[in-house]
Amino acid sequence: MIYHSIRFTLKPEVTSDEKGALVAKMRELFDAIPAVKARVAGPDFGGKYEYGAVLVIEDIAGYSDYMNHPAHLELDRIGLPFVDEFMSSDITDDPDPEIGAKIAEVHRIRFENVPDIADLISGLAEYTGSAAPGKNGG
Question: Do 85 and 12 meet the contact criterion of CB atoms below 8 Å apart?
Fold first, then answer.
């Protein structure tokens, strides 16, 4: 299993109504992705981030399906313009010693094949996660 986690803060000018709509849209679109076996999305407590989500995905094939699913791409295109800081991480019990590299490769290929998403990520004030593009890469 792979537990994919995202945490983010929104730009100061984002209104309460926009925040509520964004979280509702995030839940709706995650639910449209067959590879997501379970999810929680909402306010994030205990750190600098305002919102977050944890998605349960069975394996690396499902992870790739999730990352490239049209609903996920739609969510990125709708939501990332509102985001200031963003982080993603993955926790897995997959015994494959190369699973971290495989996760990073899914992101790298996605950013290469979907340049508008890579541009949105690159434009964030801060992004940490696998295969970060642009100024946040490392």
Answer: no
> Which tokens belong to 107?
């992101």
The amino acid sitting at 9 is T
Q: What is the model's pTM?
A: 0.92
Q: Which of 51, 133, 56, 67 is nearest to 103 (CA)?
A: 67
Size of the chain in residues: 138
Tens digit of each residue's pLDDT (9 = 90 or more) over 50-86: 999 999 999 999 999 999 999 999 999 999 999 999 9
Helix or strand run (H / E) with residue 71: helix 70-79
First-residue to last-residue Cα distance in the chain: 26
Q: Pick the closest to residue 3 from 36, 29, 28, 25 (CA basis).
A: 36
Non-local CB neighbours of 56 within 8 Å, separated by 6+ positions? 1, 2, 3, 36, 37, 38, 39
